[in-house]
From TrEMBL:
Descriptive protein name: Phosphoesterase
Cofactor(s) the protein needs: a divalent metal cation
Enzyme Commission identifier(s): 3.1.4.-
Keywords: Metal-binding
Family per similarity comment: Belongs to the metallophosphoesterase superfamily. YfcE family.
Domain Calcineurin-like phosphoesterase, first and last residues per copy: 4-152
Length: 169
């Protein structure tokens, strides 16, 4: 039963100096780490590649040429029979399920970022859409967040949204 860690919009080192210790512990525990873009700087990619058992990732709109040279616009993987894709942007929330179901009709789960707003819905086609929020930049959200889940025989397990403590300046 592979375990997955879903993160996005880390914006290092602009929004934080490093990932929270809780997220690094989740990286170390996960069988697959999925990052939905907006890394901002290459050292986090290097660190996640070194510490992750398996990394599935894409670049985001704030990622420069060095990251785009190493990451695809859409990352894809199969995990224990589950077809997964990760992309940074999916457009606005209105009609997201319909748009994504049409654009990603060959996957079971689409992980995305950009908004920093956690999202967990299922399209009429069965496509599951997940946005883990951001572990470092909560914007207008009450907490920084990330998600974990498992995969068994091609099926996604319970998705857990983890809320990180609010950092005080």
């Amino acid at each position: 039963m592979p375990s997955l860690l879903l993160i996005a919009d880390t914006h290092l080192p602009k929004r934080a100096k490093d990932l929270p210790a809780e997220v690094w512990a989740a990286v170390d525990a996960a069988d697959v780490v999925v990052h939905a873009g907006d890394w901002v700087d290459v050292p986090l990619l290097d660190a996640l590649e070194a510490r992750s058992a398996r990394l599935v990732a894409c670049y985001g709109n704030n990622d420069g040429q060095a990251l785009r040279a190493r990451l695809p616009e859409v990352g894809r993987a199969e995990v224990d029979g589950l077809r997964l894709a990760v992309v940074h942007e999916t457009g606005g929330p209105d009609g997201r399920e319909r748009r994504c179901a049409a654009a990603y009709d060959d996957v079971d789960v689409l992980v995305f970022g950009h908004s920093h707003i956690p999202w967990d819905t299922t399209a009429d086609t069965g496509l599951r859409l997940l946005n883990p929020g951001s572990p470092t930049d909560r914007r207008r959200q009450p907490h920084c967040t990330y998600m974990t889940t498992t995969v068994t025989g091609g099926r996604l397990g319970e998705v857990v949204l983890h809320r990180l403590p609010v950092r005080r300046p």
